[in-house]
Amino acid sequence: MSNNRRTWQSFEEMHKAAVAGDPQAQSYLGACYQTGQGTKQDYQEAVKWFRRAADQNDPVAQCYLGFCFLAGQGVPQEYGEAAKWFREAAEQGDPAAQFNLGMLYETGQGVPQNYAEAVKWYHSAAEAGEPQAQFNLGVFYEQGQVVPQNFTEAANWYRRAAEQEVAPAQCNLGLCYQTGRGVPQDTQQAVRWFIRAARQGDKTAQHNLGVHYASVEAMQQTTSESAADATTEKEPEI
Fold this sequence. Notes:
By secondary structure, the protein is mainly alpha-helical. Helix content is 71%, strand content 0%.
């Protein structure tokens, strides 16, 4: 996919280029209408411009259009149409479309459920740096579903996603360090990743962190009581 995406200095300039038939301008104009950036939010208008660009084979617009069908924004919700447009963009190398197409294959929405196809598209997206795909791929490797179980690969993909602030990946990477699966066991690293995920509101990470601190507190209490008992035993009788 080409990375030579153009920019415009104003909404009016972009609109003019879109009306003249520029597919990138049409794609960005659709995004403006979808988000309400620089203009009033209008999902139907967004779909109109996404479709014009998508029909000119613009992968970004195709991915956006797929999302509109997936979410039912500006068009009736239709998973089959979502899959169609995601595929058009995915085959041109769009990472977001590859992830979304993988998700549809995993859930069986709009396409027959097929975990092997899901992993194929997750892998393509993950290699291109898509963080959610990296996390999902890590889960497949950890569970050994479709691909051979490989904790090292799982930890590798969790780390890539975790470094892009995907909270569940941070939590899972913490668990890898806690258990020593795929990485050397390291409690400090486990706590570090649990904290990062917990700060984002990840409930599992918050629970794991609570269990860790409770365990440390209990250990300190036991150590303190043992030291007190030893001191008492050494005190001479009066």
